[in-house]
């Protein structure tokens, strides 16, 4: 398992363009938004906060969603398309280990991206650090697990990289909509906000932890359940070719 993780980490680093984009884009987006004076002004619709203060949880949602749903499925499907998985099928390695290696390496990249965004937001724009760090960590881990597991299901079933990219993009856009990435959540209907609270990556739990309250355990439990079920489906439906 450790060897698989080392190899996947090396491949991640070698793919410089996509890897740097995945890790740095949320921070660059924050810097662009923060350069707009109106978005640094407290507003009533954001509960007296600035837009960039309330939008950070959505940036975390974007980070987990982009890496878990855009990168992971495409990489694994490319392995299948190029015959890498077929060659691996002649070895004693269980497919769950390959999926776990992808999960570990990309999740570490997502954590680094989130930390970079938090640090830049605090140093450049004076955004408060998370008021409930343990709750935020739990929300990131469980929300990320649910999101990455959905990506692994796509990776397990997609016949090629093109199909994986199309399926993953559809799921990614849907979750980003529920997560308030495209539109501020206060502009969404209550039913959409409720779905976004429970759907991974869990924008509501992230927001609660950032503002200083413990995330709702029901939100965390649902995201953990999604991760468990989707991860099991991915391992059992995985095809080498």
From TrEMBL:
One Gene Ontology term from the biological process aspect of the record: response to antibiotic
Q: Which organism is it from?
A: Lentzea xinjiangensis
Its record classes its membrane topology as: Multi-pass membrane protein
Q: Which PANTHER family match?
A: DOXORUBICIN RESISTANCE ABC TRANSPORTER PERMEASE PROTEIN DRRC-RELATED, TRANSPORT PERMEASE PROTEIN
Q: Where are the transmembrane segments?
A: 20-39, 59-79, 99-124, 136-157, 164-183, 220-238
Q: Which GO terms describe its cellular component?
A: ATP-binding cassette (ABC) transporter complex
Q: What is its main location?
A: membrane
Q: Which Pfam families match?
A: ABC2_membrane (PF01061)
Phylogenetic placement of the source organism: Bacteria, Bacillati, Actinomycetota, Actinomycetes, Pseudonocardiales
Under the heading InterPro entries, the entry gives: ABC-2_transporter, ABC2_TM, ABC2_TM_bact-type, ABC_2_transport
Q: Where in the cell is it found?
A: Cell membrane; Membrane
The Swiss-Prot or TrEMBL record describes its family as follows:
Belongs to the ABC-2 integral membrane protein family.
Q: Which UniProt keywords apply?
A: Antibiotic resistance, Cell membrane, Membrane, Transmembrane, Transmembrane helix, Transport
* Record's protein name: Transport permease protein
Q: Which residues form the ABC transmembrane type-2 domain?
A: 17-241
The yes or no answer to whether the keyword DNA repair is present is no
Where is the signal peptide, in residue numbers?
A: none
Q: Which GO-annotated molecular functions does the record name? A: ABC-type transporter activity
